[in-house]
Specification:
The complex is a heterodimer.
Chain A lengths: L2 H25 L8 H25 L5 E13 L3 E11 L1 H24 L6 H20 L3 H19 L6 H32 L4 H9 L8 H18 L8 H4 L5 H10 L1 H12 L5 H22 L5 H22 L2 H35 L16 H4 L1 H15 L5 H20 L3 H25 L6 H5 L6 H12 L17 H5 L16 H35 L5 H7 L1 H8 L4 H44 L1 H4 L5 H25 L6 H37 L1 H17 L4 H19 L1
Antiparallel strand pairs in A: 1-2
Chain B lengths: L1 E2 L2 E2 H18 L5 H24 L15 E14 L3 E11 L1 H20 L7 H20 L3 H22 L4 H27 L3 E3 L6 E3 L3 H4 L17 H17 L8 H8 L2 H26 L1 H6 L1 H20 L4 H21 L3 H32 L10 H4 L1 H14 L6 H16 L1 H7 L1 H18 L15 H19 L2 H20 L8
Antiparallel strand pairs in B: 1-2, 3-4, 5-6
Classes of the chains: A mainly alpha, B mainly alpha.
């Protein structure tokens, strides 16, 4: 397959979902079945094309980077720089080709699943339109060859996420969650944008390869290594937002307000993985310091989220925190230098986590149906405490859910085992190279927790007895449109798709396709290179495997011991560790903390500024107006009796008058005045002060009225006459006024001629 | 380019005056003529603007050279000899456009056309209203095409009076207060501009081409050439105290129009009281006159002062962005919220200008155009709601997405355009302004990016309170947006989307002139204090 064909196909894959969106958003009501077939069909076509692209790329251009650029904005001949263009374009390397398939697989299967799950929804057609725009934006992130389009697509997935989380916007919680997702993401985005600004200011381009080539040739931002590190960390801030890393992870659990297939597509498999993809894309420009920040953020996220997940009872919330935790894993994996493993985990996780969400959707769908049938509107269909025993009623859902759980827990022969094991080996290698021992400890601990909380869900949902004997009668397996995607994802959770060796991914095609790139940053600030890392990795491999199998085994056993055999009472443990349990159940109080600080702080600041604007700034403006009026009209006609403004005005004008009087007196006084002179000058000063104050008090206009008018009556008539005219003018008789204007314009033309 | 022997710029500027006279002649009873005439006139104006836009030579630079200006019309307007004190006074009828003004001409024509559509439902003395609107149109168009400072000032003042009446007569409950405030505030600015004009007039001389005698001039292009400053005159030299003072006077005059903090408080009042179409014009075109004035006049005439005060300018931009956004967040009245969002968005224009480089300037001028279209949409949207519900209280609504789906759709485009969503035009100009500014003012730009988050927050929060949630019983019967309202909004939405996807359409006409402007500002300032 030629390079052009691959690039053209990739462009088609990118644009097809956009076409679907445009058609569906305008015509969904007029299409049969509200156009669900159109959106789904387009996505399956995209999937087909993506597989062709992947095969063509790996087959005939294995080690090449295919690129296509075009000028989007031309700034012309810029002073100080010369000709400057903003070039956009797409690129296809192995990373892109794999991501294309991952995104289109998940998206097409979610489309299919949604046909069953969203059946009869109020905004069914619009839902499919939004899925289309999401897929377009996500593919935009994947195929772009520059930071600008990356940022554009980055924000657009944010928009689609906003629209889909708020799909059921009648619920306040849904629209709140949508807002939260968008705004929290934007906080990360401005970090990313700042990083892009640093790069653009120095390299005058957005294209990845141009920037990396410039860094490699020794040009670094503002000639300083800390700026290079800062640029890396700021770009990573975008990933912190989108991939829900600590401290911006708070939006993802709330995002579960959206329909469950959306959670599977956007908030588990693809969009949240975009951050990981971004790190992979920019991995080569990350300095050692930046990578350490990335590692720690990932590890902290993995740890916090896993601890929260064990204390949640909502099936989707557990999966959401599990997603956050696994994303932390990937980020940590990339940070420690296990580049391929991190990206590999993204791929495998996309499959089994999308599967987990869809399977939970299947469960919720069934529970919802049963509850609806029983007329029960109080029981939460997502609460695992009301489930149990669903295995016999929903066999396909159960078995696929079990396979996904085995995969996420890292049990051998699953894809998850392969990828997780490699990340854990990477953390061991990392700590052996630079002594950060806490990283592998967190890694293995979280692996054990993951196995525990995932089996907790399996046991509470599918095993044992159902909590309500009547309800279980009404639980049915979901329709084919929903179970087929589950089975496909379950199949994709086996090791064989990625490597034929069930205990080592490194011999498979995936590792060959996506090798870790060499760093382009100056050697002094670079992390240990590929060779050193591989060496360390080699030594830690068997240890990692033994440890990871052990912790997974312990986690699974503990889950069975607690929830199936009931050897350990979960309630007793929770009681004994009451404060800890409450702390975890309340998600470490992150929401409360942010509400109290950032949210209320901003709102308070907004109110304070609005008050300042209204009272102080506008107060000064109005004050100037008011005092000017007072000067002309006098206090009594400007203020009402006893108004504070009048008191201030009088006080200040009294002070000013006395000062003027004193000035007059002291100016008149000779060096050694006689008593008579003193008296006389004093009286003169007092008189001046009095007159001035009187002027202030009655105003210049008032002075005019009372004194001058009394002397010259004619003036008063004249003033009255003008007053009459001006009053006439202000009654809104526009024509009168226009006559003047037309007259003016005529004069204007006469002059011109 | 001439039509019937008269230059196209004269046509596009004075066509509304013809329309105004026609509207005044039409008897009051003939309502449909009073509606259709202005629409036809402004429609023709849009066609003229499009002709200018498509015949515009993108390669020509303009700014300070007569040769670089396009569609030039130059004739002596006033020539009086022997005026005591002044000597010979020569005022030219000098019009021309370059890349800086062409987008503004297009914007003015477009916004006025849309404003006429949006004004069709005015019931109070429609005839007078339309006449005023057309006069306002001439004033605004004139400001953007005038190259003689005196002519510029005439148009600048001509625009002021109809605006005063449009707010003061057809406005809301506090219209008189708002109109007076607008008038006095702007007049204060005008006085400062006038002082600067007089100072410049007595400093710049050119040779009369026919007689060869030295004479003072109002020609802006002549003022941009340092060689024309009479040695020993007030504003001669580079970086002198009086040049800084004149720059500040001009700046405050323009700043009031923009409006720049702390001269912005007339804006929320004027917007809240003005009728919908007038808010559209006010935000869509009038505010741009301030930033246009700075770019057209202050920067090239006083490059030394422009560079000297570039950091304060960037700080004012930061204040506008963040302060405007925070004030917007606290508003309860939707129209006031959008008024403050204008303050914030005009801050982005200032930031791009303060960049003093092409990327930033392109961002700034493009943002002027985009803010014009986007904010026009926002005010039209508020008008649609107010016409139906007779309230603009954000918290009074809820769930309108269900009762008014079409309205919600178009509103979503406008709101997301305002919060800078990629794919819509506002994003490109904001991004370019920031990208440019970062190269000159790192810290200020980074602080300004917080405005991006704040804007998203208040926009989405308002959107949620009005459109999402359970439908409010009280508004169950509200009819969805009608054809007339859609016909005003849809063209703007199309422009916002097209320019968001393919900004080159507009940016290509800007770059030659703005590159040249940057060069003029940079090289014209040997004592520049750019940090």
């Amino acid at each position: 397959m030629s390079q052009e064909t691959i690039l053209q196909l990739s462009t088609v894959i990118l644009l097809l979902p956009l076409l679907g969106f445009i058609l569906l958003i305008f015509f969904n009501k007029r299409l049969p079945r509200q156009g669900d077939w159109l959106g789904t069909g387009i996505l399956f076509l995209c999937l087909l094309l993506s597989v062709i692209v992947l095969a063509g790329k790996l087959g005939s251009h294995h080690d090449e980077v295919l690129q296509f650029k075009f000028t989007w904005v031309d700034w012309g001949n810029v002073p100080g720089i010369g000709p400057l263009k903003l070039e956009l374009g797409i690129m296809v390397d192995n990373l892109v080709a794999i991501m294309l398939v991952v995104v289109t697989i998940v998206s097409s299967l979610v489309h299919l699943f949604s046909i069953g799950y969203m059946h009869g929804d109020v905004r069914y057609g619009r839902y499919f339109a939004y899925l289309g725009v999401f897929t377009f934006s996500m593919l935009g992130i994947v195929v772009t060859n520059n930071f600008f389009m990356m940022y554009v697509s980055w924000e657009l997935v944010g928009l689609s996420s906003y629209l889909l989380i708020g799909h059921w916007f009648e619920k306040k919680s849904a629209s709140d969650a949508a807002n939260k997702a968008f705004i929290v993401n934007r906080i990360g985005d401005i970090g990313m944008f700042t990083g892009i600004m640093i790069l653009f200011a120095n390299f005058q381009t957005f294209t990845f390869d141009d920037i990396f080539a410039a860094i490699q040739s020794g040009t670094i931002p503002f000639g300083s290594e800390p700026w290079l590190t800062a640029a890396g960390i700021l770009i990573f801030a975008g990933a912190v937002g989108k991939s829900a890393q600590f401290p911006l992870h708070v939006w993802l659990p709330d995002a579960m307000e959206g329909p469950t297939p959306v959670s599977a597509l956007i908030h588990a498999a693809t969009m949240v993985a975009a951050g990981v993809y971004l790190i992979a894309r920019t991995f080569t420009m990350m300095t050692a310091d930046a990578l350490i920040v990335i590692t720690y953020i990932g590890a902290i996220t993995a740890f916090i989220a896993a601890t929260i997940a064990i204390a949640q009872n909502d099936i989707k919330k557990v999966l959401a925190y599990s997603t956050v935790s696994q994303l932390g894993y990937m980020v940590m994996g990339l940070g420690v230098g296990a580049f391929t493993a991190g990206f590999f985990h993204l791929t495998t996780h996309a499959m089994f986590k999308a599967g987990l969400f869809l399977a939970s959707g299947s469960v919720i769908h069934a529970m919802h149906h049963a509850l609806h049938h029983a007329g029960d509107h109080h029981t939460d269909p997502q609460d695992i405490r009301f489930m149990g025993g669903l295995r016999s009623k929903m066999p396909i859902t159960f078995w696929t859910f079990l396979i996904f759980t085995l995969a996420i827990s890292g049990v051998p022969f699953t894809s998850g085992f392969l990828s997780k094991d490699e990340i854990l080996a990477g953390t061991l290698a990392f700590s052996s190279l630079n002594g950060h021992a806490i990283i592998p400890i967190i890694g293995f601990f979280v692996a054990g927790l993951t196995a525990f909380y995932m089996f907790r869900i399996v046991i509470l949902t599918f095993l044992g007895e159902h909590k309500d004997a009547h309800r279980i009668q009404e639980i049915h397996e979901s329709p084919f449109t929903m179970t087929v995607p589950l089975m496909v994802f379950a199949a994709l959770s086996f090791f064989a798709f990625y490597s034929f060796d069930p205990f080592g991914a490194s011999s498979g095609w995936f590792y060959a396709a996506v090798p870790r790139p060499e760093s382009v940053v100056p050697g002094t600030v670079a992390a240990p290179g590929v060779a050193a890392f591989e060496e360390a990795l080699h030594h830690s491999h068997s240890l990692a495997m033994i440890l990871s199998l052990t912790v997974a085994g312990i986690g699974i056993l503990a889950a069975f011991g607690t929830y199936y055999w009931k050897k350990i009472s979960a309630d007793a443990v929770a009681d004994r560790l009451k404060p800890l349990h409450t702390f975890l159940m309340n998600k470490w109080y992150f929401d409360e903390l942010y509400e109290a600080t950032a949210v209320n702080g901003t709102k308070g600041l907004a109110r304070a500024y609005a008050w300042f604007d209204d009272r102080v700034i506008d107060g000064i403006v109005n004050g100037v107006g008011s005092w000017t009026r007072a000067l002309t009209l006098g206090t009594s006609r400007n203020w009402e009796e006893g108004s504070l403004g009048a008191v201030f005005y009088k006080a200040i004008s009294a002070g000013l008058s006395i000062y003027i009087g004193w000035l007059v007196t002291s100016a008149l006084m000779s060096p050694e005045p006689a008593f008579g002179e003193m008296l006389w000058n004093g009286i003169l000063g007092l008189a001046t002060a009095g007159l001035t104050f009187f002027l202030f008090f009655v105003g210049v206009g008032g002075f005019d009225n009372k004194i001058v008018d009394g002397l010259v009556n004619a003036v008063a008539y004249l003033a009255g006459f003008f007053g009459l005219i001006s009053r006439r003018l202000q009654t809104g008789k526009v024509q009168t006024y226009l006559v003047f204007v037309i007259f003016g314009v005529m004069v204007f033309f006469l002059w011109f001629r | 380019m001439e039509l019937l022997g008269i230059g196209i710029l004269t046509w596009i500027t004075f066509l509304p005056i013809i329309g105004m006279v026609a509207v005044l002649i039409v008897p009051k009873e003939n309502q449909s003529a009073v509606k259709w005439l202005p629409l036809a006139i402004t429609g023709v104006q849009v066609v003229l603007a499009a002709m200018i836009f498509f015949n515009f030579d993108k390669g020509m630079t303009g700014i300070n050279t007569l040769e670089g200006m396009q569609f030039v019309e130059k004739a002596t307007w006033i020539d009086i000899k022997g005026v005591p004190w002044f000597g010979r006074i020569v005022v030219e009828y000098f019009m021309g456009i370059d890349g800086l003004s062409v987008s503004m001409v297009l914007l003015t024509a477009l916004i006025c056309f849309i404003a006429v559509i949006a004004s069709w439902n005015i019931d109070k003395s429609l005839k007078g209203y339309m006449a005023m609107l057309l006069l306002l149109d001439t004033g605004m168009m004139g400001v953007f095409v005038a190259l003689d400072f005196f002519l510029f000032y005439v148009f600048w003042e001509v625009m002021l009076l109809p605006m005063y009446f449009l707010i003061g007569v057809w406005g809301g409950p506090r219209r008189e207060y708002a109109a007076i405030k607008f008038f006095l505030y702007t007049l204060l600015g005008s006085v400062l501009i006038l002082l600067a004009i007089i100072a410049l007039y007595f400093s710049v001389t050119v040779l009369d081409p026919s007689t060869g005698e030295k004479m003072y001039t109002f020609n802006m292009l002549a003022m941009m050439d340092p060689a024309n400053f009479e040695p020993g005159s007030l504003l001669a030299g580079v970086g002198t105290q009086w040049r800084y003072i004149a720059y500040i006077a001009l700046f405050i005059g323009f700043a009031i129009k923009v409006p720049i903090f702390p001269f912005h408080t007339w804006l929320p009042d004027a917007h809240v009281e003005a009728p919908t179409a007038i808010s559209v014009i006010l935000a869509g075109v009038l505010l741009k006159m301030g930033t246009y004035g700075i770019l057209r006049i202050s920067f090239p005439i006083f490059p030394d002062a422009a560079n000297y005060f570039v950091v304060p300018l960037a700080i004012l931009a930061l204040i506008n962005i963040v302060y405007g956004a925070l004030c917007a967040m606290a508003q309860k009245d939707l129209k006031k919220l959008i008024a403050y969002s204008s303050v914030s968005h005009m801050g982005v224009v200032l930031l791009g200008m303060a960049a003093m480089n092409t990327q930033g300037m392109v961002g700034a001028v493009f943002q002027m155009f985009n803010h014009g279209t986007i904010t026009a949409m926002l005010f039209l949207i508020v008008g649609v709601l107010y016409d139906r519900a007779h309230t603009r209280e954000i918290d009074a609504f809820g769930g309108l997405a269900i009762t008014m789906p079409k309205y919600t759709g178009i509103m979503t485009v406008a709101f997301f355009a305002a919060l800078g969503l990629p794919g819509l035009s506002g994003f490109i100009s904001e991004a370019f302004s920031f990208l440019g500014a970062f190269q000159t003012h790192r810290v200020i730009t980074i602080l300004s990016t917080s405005g991006i988050v704040l804007t998203a927050a208040y926009m989405l929060w308002a959107l949620q309170r009005i459109f999402l949630g359970q439908p409010n019983e009280k508004w169950a019967g509200l009819p969805d947006i009608n054809g007339r309202e859609l016909s005003a909004l849809v063209p703007l939405a199309v422009i916002v989307i097209v320019l968001g996807v393919y900004p080159g359409l507009m940016i290509d006409v800007l770059t030659s002139s703005l590159n040249h402007l940057v060069e003029v500002v940079k090289t014209g300032a040997p004592m520049a204090l750019v940090p």
